[in-house]
Amino acid sequence: MLRPRATPTRELVNLDGLWRFAIDAAAGERPWGGRLDTPLEAAVPASYNDLFTDREIRDHVGWVWYQRSVRVPRGWAGERVRVRVDAATHEGRVYVDDVLVAEHAGGYTPFEADVTEHVTAGHEFRLTIGVGNELTGRTIPPGTITVTADGRRRQTYLHDFSNYAGLARSVWLYSVPHLHVEDVTIVPGVEGDTGTVGYSVRTSGPAGVRVRVVDADGAEVATGEGANGVLRIPDVTLWRPGAAYLYGLVVEVLDGDRVSDVYTEPFGVRTVEVRGTSFLINGEPFYFTGFGKHEDTPVRGKGHDDAYLVHDFQLMDWIGANSFRTSHYPYAEEVMEFADRHGIVVIDETAAVGLNLAVQGGLTGVPPRPTFSPETFGDETREAHAQAIRELIARDKNHPSVVMWCVANEPSSAEDGAREYFEPLVELTRKLDPTRPVCYAAVIFATHDNDRIADLFDVLCLNRYYGWYIATGDLATAETYLERDLRGWAERFGKPIMMTEYGADTMPGLHSVWDTPWTEEYQQAYLAMNHRVFDRIEAFVGEHVWNFADFQTSDGIHRVDGNRKGVFTRDRRPKAAAHALRARWTGLAGRRP
User: Where would I find the Glycoside hydrolase family 2 catalytic domain in this sequence (predicted)?
Assistant: First the structure.
């Protein structure tokens, strides 16, 4: 799905701001059937949970409703008009006046509706968006809904971050000509000093297509005819980590001799390859330094915020990070575009977190059920997972910053049924995009001896917490465990290995002269122990600390005001470990230490 852009033939109106808001119990039977009768207003983009002081809203399980009036620009007469929702977590329904125009399941990818037949240029219409936050065994991510003794519905889930919900990203109204570009796929390559640009254009109807490539200064460097082809850029400037360079593919749709639509898709020319135990970008070994992150800030929850976007990338630059993983869901498109422009490398992940009932058993003491079965996570779950992969790749396929697809985080990959569940998903991912490596992040219970799916993937991404959840406070023992673990993976599979999670909860300002868990000193010592081991493993290609910043989790006795493994606090103040990481990472520039 193409991102809405203003072009010579397209216009767009941003619908962010304050919308009327109500939970389902207060919204009436048909919230879309008239003006929403509510005193509440909610900010868009933002999760709704922390906006209000009413705990009933914060803990609500079910549907909520947003509504506002929208005026179609009078100059849009004769154009197609679309409403686009960048994300509705976890399910969305869109109504124009009292007509349902779109439905979508999946909380982190966009959807849209052509509303041309329901609106009139120059006139207002009532836009109502319902958002459902329920997670079940058939959703990605999964969850369970129970009813308490007093009749309240309660949502539980298997991921360790708050189930923020609502319209956390922008909503748009935009126009396109009747004959227009529907999709563009760009596949870059390099032949010596020449860049190759394979392209494929899908249009709304039979039409001529003309394309040209412009450089960063707008100068034309290549041209072509037809909806499919390969263009060549002499003396190409490559997109490199830390040194981004973007071209633009300008697509013109022809209605006879007339240009009906113009759309420009930014792209970078670079290659990605796994060779032996090396991860190569543009044929050069690349070493990942960075973080697992979260879209999480005070009050906004998962709501996208450009100020935090800029500041977070500034902090990553300051600390020497060259990459991050979109744990544990696709991030806002603004984030991906910023990474493209600033040369930050991205591992792009689906929302498939929590496919692991063994973890639930370990936390609760209740014997776990099998993770993969018709009664737990079966064919319906896998189809929801497959759809999440399709939508992720469709949205992010042209981003040069994206160098690897991560299909899941910490699934129960050592269990019966894991291979039957994941093998078709890996095949689908490779079919949709054969140009990028594929990975998953392996939970600590999955070892080189018992894991059943690692051979399907290109890079071994491991989440390990020796010294925190295992051998807590005993870093000498933790170091022995970690090195033995990593060497086992390296010897069995002969693939690149990176750590996609390692970290220790740390209360800012808590200090000790001893290696005491939760202190800032222990977080530093913990990270240093991991780094000593990493540097001894020849196949190692990267380190992503968990987490960039502290983040909110569900209520419970396992967390005190959220997960505190951040190197920065939730409001982005550095802990002592941030300075230690900066000393290690600054100057590496993607090279092996």
Answer: 272-587
Q: List Cβ<8 Å contacts ≥24 apart for 271-277.
A: 271/188, 271/189, 271/190, 272/403, 272/404, 272/435, 272/436, 272/437, 274/437, 274/458, 274/459, 274/495, 274/496, 276/494, 277/490, 277/494, 277/495, 277/496, 277/497, 277/538, 277/539, 277/541
Please give the Cα distance from 299 to 70 (Å, whole number).
26
Domain count, the chain: 3
Active site residue 501: yes
410, 415, 479, 543: the catalytic one is 410
363-398 per-position pLDDT tens digit: 555 677 899 999 999 999 999 999 999 999 999 999
Please state the φ and ψ torsions of residue 179, each to the nearest 5 degrees: -105, 115
The CATH number that applies at residue 537 is 3.20.20.80
Domain that holds residue 190: 181-270
Rounded distance between C-alpha atoms, residue 498 and residue 540, angstroms: 6
Asked if 36 and 77 sit in the same domain, the reply is: yes
Is residue 56 part of the annotated active site? The answer reads no
Residues in contact with 359: Cβ distance below 8 Å, sequence separation at least 6, in sequence order: 158, 410, 412, 443, 445
What is the pTM (predicted TM-score) of this model?
Answer: 0.94
- Choosing from 295, 391, 501, 543, the catalytic residue is 501
